[in-house]
Amino acid sequence: MTGFRTFYDFGSLRSFLNEGAKVPQIGLVPTMGALHIGHVSLIERALKENDIVVVTIFVNPKQFNNPIDLEKYPRVPEKDLALLNVYDRVVVCIPQVNDVYPENDPYEKIELGLLDTVLEGEFRPGHFDGVAHVVHNLMFYTKPSKAYFGLKDIQQLSVIKHMVASTKRPVDVVACQTVRDAHGLALSSRNLLLNEAKHKEALIIYKTLSFVKSNIKVLGKEETLKQAQAIFNQSSLELEYLDVVNQTTFGPYKKEGDDNVCCISAFCEKVRLIDNILL
Ligand code: AMP
Fold this sequence. Notes:
By secondary structure, the protein is of the alpha/beta class. The protein contains eleven helices and nine strands. Strands 1-4-3-2-5-6 form a six-stranded parallel sheet, sandwiched between helices. Strands 7-8-9 form a three-stranded antiparallel sheet, covered by helices on one side. Adenosine monophosphate (AMP) binds next to helix 2 and strand 5.
């Protein structure tokens, strides 16, 4: 059962996966396409740990609270397939909306608590309900042993861990390091929407995060965030939030803890960028 394959519905994907005498161990990498090296790092990790890697490409309408953002989201399926077809044990699934959300939907909504009310939760109402729903259904239909997610979207990662625990899906959630460009900008499909000048200006995001990491233990939370904001405000980007929280619960930052994270969201022109750094 080798060779790169593409499927457009879960039924034919499952038939293919069940073809052999032994059901393969599946690693799932859910994506919204416009793939870059960050996605590839997840796929390569999954290849090391599984027989077959299922990469889903699905721009999930339920997680966009802003219709313009959904419309503008980059879609380059041919490029994506060209990037992946060198991998022998990768299978791509590009399902339709009805396939992911059938009438007889297997998902029962769960409570997300604090995760849905702070930072991304506050600024993107309904976003994480959409994320929990889509990832649940992708897991339900592709039946992976493991699923891979980037620390780049750390709040999303916590939501997914919470969803998996609440719905008792038998899947290991694997967290993967954020891949950055040579200057520190976290790779993102949305970077495709930035011109060269804006790309350069967006580097202020990582500079701000690095400042927080280097100073918070000495200066404390309030003073560090104040100075970090001043640094950030020298740029033309518009800050949405900059805060430090516990990286699992997204509850308050605790000075003594070694499990804090600094999260940032900013608009670079009309492009919304998020990033974080573990403290
Ligand atoms: P997306 O297509 O943006 O929904 O991302 C699909 C997966 O790739 C998510 O688990 C993201 O967290 C992960 N991802 C996106 N950008 C990066 C990056 N720069 N480094 C590592 N993982 C990433």
